[in-house]
Amino acid sequence: MSGFKEGFLWGGAVAAHQLEGGWQEGGKGVSVADVMTAGAHGVPREITDGVLPGKNYPNHEAIDFYHRYRDDIKLFAEMGFKCFRTSIAWTRIFPKGDELEPNEAGLQFYDDLFDECLKHGIEPVITLSHFEMPFHLVTEYGGWRNRKLIDFFVRFAKVVFTRYQHKVKYWMTFNEINNQANFHEDFAPFTNSGLKYAPGEDREPVMFQAAHYELVASALAVKAGREINPSLKIGCMIAMCPIYPLTCAPDDMMMAMNAMHRRYWFTDVHVRGKYPQHLLNYFERRGFALDITEEDKVALTQGCVDYIGFSYYMSFATKATEDNPQLDYDESKSLVSNPYVQKSDWGWQIDPVGLRYSLNWFWDHYQLPLFIVENGFGAIDVQESDGTVNDQYRIDYLSAHIREMKKAVAEDGVDLMGYTPWGCIDLVSAGTGEMKKRYGFIFVDKDNEGNGTLNRSKKKSFDWYKQVIASNGEQL
Ligand code: P53
After folding, report:
1. What percent of the chain is predicted at pLDDT more than 90?
2. CA neighbours within 13 Å on the CB side: how many for 413?
3. Which SUPFAM superfamilies does the protein's record reference (predicted)?
């Protein structure tokens, strides 16, 4: 017996901005993803002041899913997908973000998309905000540093919950809300929260403030969703990269514990509806005066999530150093290489056992159903002359992770709802903007410069994953 429950949600995951394209179709507004150029491993994506001529913005066309989704969903159905995780581009519904009335053409697009999924027996799993908030909310309001964004987000959430309540049961509020724990770099603050920092600005309290407004917005959305339809299941979405101590030295262990505190407190607030004491003490020690009202605190307790969605790609490691007596975690400086695991071409540490550990960690802490909504191997695929792609390395990566996931369920008793590998069809990388960092079971003919036919073809992993689903995880 594999241990995966009946109705286990096997599927695949994507996000609107990384595959749809059609960046100006149907009245869509400019999102934060539309003003990011292509980078590469070690070369950050440039965040430009609006859309500038002569720059390469890979998300504008992406893989043109906007026009090709019917054929793509047919391929997902052929693999036997039970569910398909994507996001609703906020800018299709509220092009600028602060309008009072939604854009009907955008709403209709997702009606059609969800109908197409349901026609094939595929259940849509929807993220509300996946690195694609309206750019207007950045230029006009300063992104999530502004409390007004709570209202804009909740309006958006209510509109889509109401409209799609009979088509979509599973929702998540903010994708990888905890990426912004890495506030020293520019990428996560901008993609998570539309934050651009002034030179020399004290970034950390701004990050905590933005995250707080998002957590309040998430809680209010959960509450509203339940009022609209009590059968909706609304979760959070956390980027899980468990942080190991480099050695068993007690200070290394404490450093790892502090690091986990600093990256995963977001889950405490989503699940328990309140801040952990260690974080409140930290705010006090650092003298951060945050705008957290009594009303906010009530809202947080009333919008606790139904399940925990999370991504898992890699584990991290850290160690204590003498110049850091308080053992504070700074994600841009505190990570060290783990000598026991291999790395991908993009330096991501490959650690299938870390997935079993993560499942247990979440389960031990929160006892809420878990949903692995991203996992996968970004790699350079080579198309043979006959068009095939022999991506055995991807099969090896995914099967090793599914084996560990199976142990977590069958041996450790974790409650797992489903598994949706990331980028089930090749798409634009979020971190680098590249096409060449591929995750798919389906190859898309397009390169980093935007050349290619956009034709789709099956990789070796396509048939492999089909058999995994058909056997409910027995045949790996
Ligand atoms: P890419 C960092 C660490 C873990 C997951 O990432 C991350 C990131 C941000 O890059 O993002 C998630 O495309 C995210 C997806 C993204 C996917 O992982 O950089 O939810 O949007 O595409 C893979 O290789």
Report:
1. 99
2. 2
3. (Trans)glycosidases
